[in-house]
Task: inverse folding
């Protein structure tokens, strides 16, 4: 495929301005049998997260005597991308599972449940760049939905550079042809960063710009996360008034 | 200073209070401020601010009445599943109320796998080992066991036991409520037992609505 021009007259391929997010939607509590769950769409990304636990850890030798263990599994469905993805874990998804786990761990009060385990399953049903950050965003909603005590939610988004312009929330084409991609996950309340990766190149000035854009995106997503959690209960709470 | 009203729906990380307040359950302190740690309804009692979670697993606490299910045996007793991340330990001698010579007696005559036991949490130690004291001699022999989310159990009991009273008095059934989300329904008339089970499941589904007690009452009274 020929490299398309990614920004024309200040507009991106899908008509967004550089500082705009793709349309998004978050819903909490979509799976009945899971302890907590969430579904998220971000542009063409469709991600389903299920949380189980805290529950007893088996095998026993993996138990930690003072804290609960968090296990994350990021998985892409074979049909989530244009060319069928070979099912099962691969180098990429194992690495992403690890960084997602490390992005979520700081918000959880894991010491409340020693010897237990919390399982987080992140299933990417349709991928269009930025799935790890969307996965984190949805996973923290699912964790809260499971009733697991947390300091805050975690919100993820990516910023990058395409055609020399710093942009927010890269889509597939921009990820593929762009010059830089920087996923970032934040605990928004205290603005603490729990994940920061980058491929490509930024100048220090561009890095700062991308950083600011990402925080702008995080604010919007954070509100949507909180709203998704409230929405699960509020309609019925309103009724009683 | 308070930042929320009583019985307000909050999400994790929401600022609840600052200054002269104490953080209760579902809340935590950071930099002298109190935040919510779960999704739930706030409960403000004088100086204490807590959040009643709307979800979550059962965590054993001393004094809780629970219904456990035998999942394993060890030389002196049994391991019980408590619908929780932690299993409970029950000693054979406690169950029968006398000394037991484990070389002469066969423990499987007392309890077998899958048997349900009504018990109280006697102690939870710092390694989260849970020790149970039986509230009845032997296993639960009769009744229907219903399992619901432990977060919804307070609704089945109701304010000062109001819901429980409705469930029992309108149907003549006897209920044993395990805080861990297992409820035993005993009654002579199977139709009434079924009605109570249905009612409990309805309470679980609509736990966050008010006026529930009256609706359940109307439903059960129709049965007579």
Result:
């Amino acid at each position: 495929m020929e490299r398309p021009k990614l920004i024309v007259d200040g507009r991106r391929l899908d008509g967004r301005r550089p500082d705009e997010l793709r349309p998004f939607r978050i819903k909490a509590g979509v799976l009945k049998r899971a302890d907590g769950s969430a579904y998220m769409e971000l542009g063409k990304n469709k991600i389903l997260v299920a949380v189980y636990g805290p529950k007893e850890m088996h095998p026993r030798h993996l138990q930690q005597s003072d804290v609960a263990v968090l296990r994350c599994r990021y998985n892409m469905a074979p049909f989530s991308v244009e060319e069928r993805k070979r099912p099962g874990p691969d180098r990429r998804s194992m690495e992403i599972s690890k960084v997602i786990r490390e992005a979520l761990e700081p918000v959880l009060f894991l010491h409340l449940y020693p010897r237990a385990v919390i399982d987080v399953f992140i299933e990417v049903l349709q991928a269009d760049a930025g799935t790890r950050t969307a996965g984190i965003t949805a996973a923290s909603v699912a964790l809260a939905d499971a009733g697991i005590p947390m300091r805050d939610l975690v919100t993820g988004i990516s910023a990058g550079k395409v055609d020399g312009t710093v942009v927010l929330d890269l889509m597939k084409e921009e990820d593929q042809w762009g010059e830089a991609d920087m996923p970032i996950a934040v605990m928004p309340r205290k603005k603490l960063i729990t994940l920061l990766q980058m491929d490509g190149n930024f100048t220090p000035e561009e890095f700062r710009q991308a950083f600011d854009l990402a925080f702008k995106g995080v604010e919007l997503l954070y509100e949507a996360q909180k709203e998704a959690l409230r929405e699960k209960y509020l309609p019925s709470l309103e009724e009683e008034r | 200073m308070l930042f929320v009203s009583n019985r307000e729906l909050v999400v994790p990380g929401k600022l609840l209070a600052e200054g002269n307040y104490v953080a209760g359950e579902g809340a935590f302190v950071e930099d002298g401020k109190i935040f919510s740690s779960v999704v739930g309804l706030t409960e403000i009692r004088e100086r204490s601010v807590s959040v009643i979670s709307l979800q979550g697993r059962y965590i054993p606490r001393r004094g809780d009445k629970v219904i456990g299910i035998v999942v394993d045996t060890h030389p002196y007793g049994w391991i019980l599943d408590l619908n929780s991340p932690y299993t409970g330990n029950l000693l054979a001698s406690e169950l029968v109320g006398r000394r037991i010579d484990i070389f002469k007696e066969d423990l499987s005559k007392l309890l077998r796998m899958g048997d349900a036991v009504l018990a109280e949490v006697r102690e939870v130690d710092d390694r989260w080992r849970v020790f149970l004291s039986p509230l009845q001699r032997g296993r639960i022999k009769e009744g229907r066991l219903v399992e619901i989310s432990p977060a919804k159990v307070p609704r089945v009991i109701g304010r000062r036991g109001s819901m429980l009273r409705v469930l029992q008095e309108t149907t003549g059934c006897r209920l044993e409520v395990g805080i861990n989300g297992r409820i035993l329904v005993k009654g002579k008339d199977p139709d009434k037992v079924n009605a109570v089970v249905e009612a409990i499941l309805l309470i679980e589904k609509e736990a966050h609505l008010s006026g529930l007690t009256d609706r359940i009452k109307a439903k059960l009274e129709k049965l007579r």
Notes: The interface with chain A takes residues 9, 11-13, 26, 28, 30, 35, 37-39, 53-57, 59, 85-87, 127-128, 151, 206, 208-211 of chain B (CB under 8 Å). The mean pLDDT of chain B is 92. The helical segments of chain B are 92-96, 153-157, 162-171, 190-205, 212-221.
